[in-house]
Amino acid sequence: VRANWRNLRNICLKLINLLFSKLNLLTEPFLQICECMYTGLKKYKDNSQNRIVASFITLRLVIPALTIPENYNLVKKCNPKLRRKLILIGKIVQYVTNGGMEDKEKWTLIAEEFIYENKETSAQLTSAIYTNIQKKRITKKN
Asked: What are phi and psi of 76, to 5 degrees?
């Protein structure tokens, strides 16, 4: 179980790092939606805007590609065993971008430490998106 978890953990870390490295590929309309959400949520004093924007990105982009990769031409056919692994990866990445777990499933207990160690990921992701938006605006002005 521990060896499987280490492998799953490494895959999740790689996916999170890949997500950060590819933020420059997000389209202008998608970035505008993120910025609009972030700005609209700033009025709440609980700092939930980072978590909500990061969750939006993973729910709209990452999770669909992981759970139904054949729809995105990532694989020709996805067998049930592979799909289960991809769903687990998606759940862990979603928990990380949510900043933690509210409803704990039994299998997540082994992942709990990793999820909480990486709970700042949503703030980092939102900050990286905001930086990306600013860079695109500067580029357009010049």
From this structure: -75, -40
Q: What six digits make up the tokens of 107? A: 């299998």
Residues 61-115: tens digit of each pLDDT: 889 999 999 999 988 999 999 999 899 899 888 888 887 777 667 777 778 888 8
pLDDT of 137 > 80? The answer is no
Question: What's 58's DSSP letter?
Answer: I
Measured between alpha carbons, how far is 34 from 56 in angstroms, rounded to an integer?
Answer: 8
- Find, among 115, 52, 50, the residue nearest to 88 by Cα: 115
Tally of CB atoms within 10 A around 134: 11
Separation of CA 45 from chain center: 23
The Cα-based distances of 7 to 2, 69, 89 in angstroms read 9, 20, 11
